[in-house]
Every structure is written in structure tokens, then in C-alpha cells.
Amino acid sequence: MSITSDRPATLPGAVIDAGLFDAQWVDGPGGYTGVEPTAEWAEEVRRLARARNATLLAHNYELPAIQDVADHVGDSLALSRIAAEVDSDEIVFCGVHFMAETAKILSPDKRVLIPDARAGCSLADSITADELREWKAEFPDAVVVSYVNTTAAVKGLTDICCTSSNAVEVVASIDPDKDVLFLPDQFLGAHVKRKTGRDNIHIWAGECHVHAGINGDELTAQAESHPDADLFIHPECGCATSALYLAGEGFVPADKVKILSTGGMIDAARETKAKQVLVATEIGMLHQLRKAAPGIDFQPVNGRASCPYMKMITPAALLRALREGKDEVFVPEDVAAKARQSVERMIAIGNPGSGE
Ligand code: SF4
Question: Where does iminosuccinate bind (predicted)?
Fold first, then answer.
């Protein structure tokens, strides 16, 4: 364990004032700690962001304090598109590493920082570029469709990216006679296969350990004890298949089951007439849902579904990023150019949807 000083850093071309906030952080096993998200901390974060001409982006699964201090909160793709549009020198992406890479791919001229580059993703890590090369060699004529939860190197080997809200549309746009390699999420893949009715779709057996842990038994028990609640379910969840089964068998009214991306959940929260909603996704999402629709009682299907990688973006890590200009995200230009094409092809199909 090491103590890191809070010495202010300078960015080429910019001077970062020392400021009055006196804090130091500790680099421990779970990431940077030792800084409380007080009002002074938030003020210092905002001051440093202005001094760096940085835009702060936070994913829906971040800690509430990180979401509240950010300029924009949303899903991974929406945030990456904002990153490309804003007029700032730097993007500080409070999310996991593949998300910051996607922002860099879409904004190659901006400096992109992630407060802790060790914040990975079990789903993105479930397929490497080498594994994808080998899979492609088995199906040389297949079209590769990758969910946005993939590394830049995997996106660089992909024909079309997809998000959880447009995956069905993207696969349906592909010549029905062509094989499709769908990766990396098996639950989203099963959802797409069911919806498109294609039997030439091959699905990589990857999963997110957080979403896979939200299982059908929990969902069934919760749905039975809250019969009037709507069910908002992310398609990466292990229970998504169970939810469709429960609806199909009439255990839960079909109109109460909504398979939604995180961005779609916010829209649905504003529209639903339900007084209570059971939410099957990472628990950080509850913060934005409660803000979007304060009159609704949102309850997690599994209150332990917390992503340890997202929670590595601590108040200490964010302060360190802004003071020291770390950790910078790099994507080799040749990889970024190919990855950008796969994202742009998805956007050209129509509904750009929203990522995790
Ligand atoms: S919740 Fe799962 S898919 Fe999302 S960042 Fe965490 S590990 Fe990855």
C-alpha cells in the first residue's frame, strides 16, 4: 500500500492552481481511497475540471457522489458521443476501461483520462483479440457483431458494433444467408437469436459476472411478492431469459416485463404508470432512476449486484485524475480507425441505441 501526495500537477499549456482542498489518497487493494465526497471535494473537482478545460462523464453504475459531480451521466455509448461533441480539451471518463477507450475512438483529438485504469470489465475480458481471430478463421465469411462492451482491439476486428437496445435491429440488417458471430454476451445473444429467429447466429459464451448473478429464482420470488410492480430488466442479466419465460407462461403479465438498456430504463421510468418497479441491473442505476421519477418506488431484484470495477472510480481516484492528469487512455491509430468504422456502421443502421 502506498500513500500518494496531493501535489497539484500541470498539464502542458495549462496551469492547475494548488487549491485549498487538503487531501491525500491511498492506493489500496480495491483502488484509491482516503477521500470523502464532501461539498469541499465536489467544489475542488469542479474547480480542477474548469482549470483543465475537462468534461466529466459518469456512467449510470458509478457511485452516487461521482454521478452527482459529473457534467453528464448516461450509458456508455451516449457518453462517448457526448465526448466527441463537447468543446473541451479533455474528457475524464468515470466508467470502466473499454468505455473510456470508446470515447477515445470517437474523439481521437481529445485527451481522455480514466480515474483508475485498473477498472476493467469481466464481460469485455471474456474475449480477447486473439480468440476472436481464431473464431473468425473458423467462419471466414461470417459477419462479426460485437456488443459495445468489448476492448478496442476486439472492436477493431468487428464488422458492426451493437448496443443492448439496437442489437436485434443490427443483426436483422445482415443478409439472412450470412453466418453471424455474436459476441461477447451470451444472454444478449440468446435474446437476439430469439427475436430474429435466425439459426445461423453463433454466440460467444461470455457473461458479466454482476449481471449473470441476477438469476431467475430471485426474479421469480420478487415478481411473486410484488405482483403490481413493473420489471425493468437489462438484457445482460442472467434473469432476462427467465423474465421472458415467466411472461410467456403467464406467471407475470407480459406488459409488465420490459427488457431495456440503461438509457431505455430512464425513458421507461418517466413513462410508466406503475407505483413500484423491480430493477434487474447493477444497483448504481437506481440513483438515476430515483432522480428521474421520484414518485416511484424502485427496488433492486438483487441488492448485491454491484460492479466492483465501476466502484473503483472513487472520490479519491477522481481527485487524483484531475490533479495528476492520470490515467491517460491510448488506442493505437490503426486499431482506432477500424474500431471507429464498426461503431459508425452501427450508427448508420439507424437507432444508435444506448450501451450498457
Ligand atoms: S457491470 Fe458487468 S458488464 Fe458492466 S462494467 Fe461491470 S463487469 Fe462489465
Answer: 59, 76, 147-149, 164, 234-236, 262
CATH class for domain 124-208+335-349?
alpha beta
CA of 122 to the centre of ligand 1 (A): 6
Of the candidate ranges 15-24, 101-110, 129-138, 185-194, the one whose mean pLDDT is the lowest:
15-24
**Ligand 1, closest atom to CA 309?**
6
Contact 92, 55 (CB under 8 A): yes
**Domains 2-119+309-325 and 214-300 belong to one CATH topology:** yes
Residues contacting ligand 1 via CB (< 6 Å): 61, 96, 121-123, 149, 208, 210-211, 282, 307, 309-310, 356
- To the nearest 10 degrees (0 to 180), the angle between helices 97-106 and 76-85 is 40
Question: What class does CATH assign to 2-119+309-325?
Answer: alpha beta
Residue 271 pLDDT grade (very low, low, confident, very high; cuts 50, 70, 90): very high
72 is in an annotated binding site: no
pLDDT at residue 88 above 80? yes
- How far apart, in whole angstroms, are the C-alpha atoms of residue 60 and residue 77? 12
Q: Which of 94, 102, 126, 210 to mutate to test the pocket of ligand 1 (most atoms within 8 A of CB)?
A: 210
Verdict on whether the full-model pTM lies above 0.85: yes
Domain ranges in the chain are 2-119+309-325, 124-208+335-349, 214-300
Q: Is 245 annotated as a binding residue?
A: no
Q: CATH classification of 214-300 is 3.40.50.10800, yes or no? A: yes
- How confident is the model over 125-179, as pLDDT tens digits? 999 999 999 999 999 999 999 999 999 999 999 999 998 778 889 999 999 999 9
Grid cell of 9 as nine digits: 500537477
What Å distances lie between residue 108 and 2, 91, 117, 237, CA to CA?
33, 11, 18, 32
